Structures are given as structure tokens and as C-alpha cells.
Amino acid sequence: MGKAVPKNIKSKANALVKAKVTEFTDDFEENKKLLGTLGIPLAKEQRNLVAGFLTRKVNKAKAQAG
Questions:
Q1: How many CB atoms neighbour CB 16 within 10 A?
Q2: Would you say 54 and 24 are in contact if contact means Cβ atoms under 8 Å apart?
Q3: Of 17, 29, 51, 66, which one is least surrounded by beta carbons within 10 A?
């Protein structure tokens, strides 16, 4: 079993995916930089959690599609 992701992280990530679906990639570092440029006020730990969740979400979507 994996580590549980807090609701506030999931909700922020899901809102970002709905708004900017194509911009996120399967690379954690790129997602982290993109979150930094969006101007969303996130603490460093929150930014990393959101970027990691988005990375896993993109990887899962790619695995299901292909």
C-alpha cells in the first residue's frame, strides 16, 4: 500500500488538472517547476506533494491508455 494523500492536496491537484490538463507531464521536476510558475501560493512541502500526486496521476492515465 502506498502513502495516503491528504484531501487538500488531492483537491488542489484535481482542480489544476481540470484547468491545465495538457501542461503536466510524467516528470516530477517539470511539474514542480510548472507549479512554481503558476503563482499558486503553496508551501514547499505542499508544492512537492501536489507535483508528486500529479506525476502519479499522469503516469496512471498513460498506463491505462496504452
A1: 21
A2: yes
A3: 66
Whole-angstrom Cα distance, residue 61 to residue 65?
Answer: 6
Domain ranges for the chain, please list them: 7-65
* Residue 1 confidence class, pLDDT cut points 50, 70, 90: low
The 10 Å CB-count burial string (b at 16+, else e) for 21-51 is: eeebebeeeebbebbeeeeeebeeebbbbbb
Q: How high is the mean pLDDT of the chain?
A: 88
Looking at CATH, the fold of the domain delimited by 7-65 is given as Diphtheria Toxin Repressor; domain 2 (1.10.60)
How far apart are the C-alpha atoms of 25 and 56, rounded to whole Å?
10
